Amino acid sequence: MPIKIPDLLPAKSKLQDENVFVMDESRAFRQDIRPLQILILNLMPLKQQTETHLLRLLGNSPLQIDVGLLHTSSHVPRHTSLEHLEQFYKSIDDVKDKRYDGLIITGAPIEKLHYEDVTYWDELSQIMEWSKTNVTSTLHICWGAMAGLFYHYGIDKYIRPKKISGIFPHDLKDETEKLLSGFDEEFLAPHSRNADIRKEEIENEPNLKILSESDEAGVYIAASTDGRQIFVTGHPEYDAFTLQKEYERDQQAGLNPDIPVNYFPKNDPNQRPRLRWRTHSNMLISNWLNYYVYQETPYKL
């Protein structure tokens, strides 16, 4: 089934080239069906790249999805044009009276900042509070997961001695968990962050459970016991070259980054990285949409 996106969104042509089933607004208008209403709060600096990453995963679901894009009006991004934001994005003031089946809150490369020092923290807090009553289930990614754990449960992050970057193996903590349906007992997923969450703090919260973790990368997936809040500390949406671009960016910035772990063949940055986490990423998003959104949301929002 297709995802419905604006007619002129730049990601449309790239997704169509990859045979992702997208339907523009003009065609969707003629469809007599109730699609899922999914809102993406895009906090990443390269917003068009993140749009493509997430729409690619959402487009792999058998469900029809109507995607909306949200940004924080209290922060002006440097890497996305105002014209793009005005054409395709809304603010919380535009949607605060609406209800959505699902919300995705992306990461942001600001892990080293205290939450209160983030320029849009008050607005993000407003959005996360709004989501508790206006969204069936919210999926938080990377920094978005850490911010969500802090806002909803008071679980703070800590700065790692070195950035964690690479592709890491993960184990399942509960093989009966619906979000992990169809997963291998061990699977790969990308991480790219300077901060982390302490496992014991999640374990001490009775309304949270750990679903997957890695010996090297720590807790990967945690969820509220009612399934309304999902926290993913990695980047399942990344394509094959995202970590490479980040590594080269950090090199150019003089940060002397380590080579991403288990990423380049033979650990050689001159070789083309291979995409080895696509199946897990597609299943994660499809399971979230099916079990925590589609099967839980009311027909009439």
Automatic annotation (TrEMBL):
CDD domains according to UniProt: GATase1_HTS (cd03131)
Site (Important for acyl-CoA specificity): E111
EC number, UniProt record: 2.3.1.31
Gene Ontology terms for molecular function: homoserine O-acetyltransferase activity; homoserine O-succinyltransferase activity
SUPFAM superfamilies for this protein: Class I glutamine amidotransferase-like
Subcellular location: Cytoplasm
A GO cellular component entry from the record: cytoplasm
Active site: C142 (acyl-thioester intermediate), H235 (proton acceptor), E237
Pfam families: HTS
HAMAP family xrefs: MetA_acyltransf
Name this polypeptide is given: Homoserine O-acetyltransferase
Native source organism of the sequence: Gracilibacillus halophilus YIM-C55.5
